[in-house]
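Handoff note, outgoing to incoming analyst
You'll be picking up this chain. Sequence as last confirmed:
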Amino acid sequence: MIRVRGRVRCLGLPVVWGAAAVTYKLACPLAQQSSLPARILTSAVFFAVGTGLILHVRRSLARELRQLRRVAGAAQNALLRPPPSHVDGLDVAAAQVSAERGAAIGGDLYEVAATEYGVRAVMGDVRGHGIGALGTVAAVLGCFREAAHDEKDLGGVLRRLERALERHLRQEHPTGDLEEFVTLLLVEIRADGAMLALNCGHPWPYRLRGTGVEHLAAGDPYPPLGLFPLPDSDLPTVGLGRLRAGDGLFLYTDGAQDARDARGRFFPLQTVLESAARDAPPTPRAILTRVVTALHHHTRGEPADDIALLILTNSRDAALGESGAGDLASAAGDAPLAPR
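Most recent structure output, in case you need it:
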């Protein structure tokens, strides 16, 4: 009933203006005359009515756009919740930039969860962007939020995500006529700072240590989820070294490194990270703000793809985990990164 009344109010003014214009044309004696002043007056009347209608429609469309943005913002807050600023000794900050103008959510996803196995994080990128990718984002995130706590190892989490994605795609596209996939990076940060990961076609992260930035490329990733099945054998994790006290781990989607300026030049992500680590206050939010600002400047606020960024900084006591962690330190320490 409320929606009907709103529609009536929306159409009421144009109908009144239109009726007034028609009444003037049919009933006013001046409108029947063919003299130049009469024609000018008639034209002015219809011009005023037309201008009023255009302005009214414009205001109505702007009102509906604001409503859609509020709905999209509510969907973002419910689905892609901002992570807590502090998770089990790690400071966290995240940001997302949508490729669709006016959209509050895109095809990228991230989540951080404190589990009994360590802090687990996921960063993903759904094929496509904007509202159309929302269903796939919901399926993957919903599964991760359960599997991260249930599964003992990251391999089990990844297989759960693969099954959830398969179910979603069968329900949404039963004929299988749409190719859809998700790139994913799963990371586990244990209490002593040891980092383990599984990668399905996603960019490897950066480690920020002091003013230095290191790209943690740990071998070839698996194919993106949904593109090819995962191997039937075990899915061994790879070591990404250690996240010592004060270190930061920077996860991102390929929209960041592939962003181009007006001259077609790629965004210098590592250079910007080094500058941010050197000049900005050593907090995840400050570094993330510097990167997002540089991205907006590089793309003039119009990136070609969705962009998601996530930083986790080890704010634990430097002495925590330094002793009694020999096994993990040798398996996933600062030795060369292990290929899978």
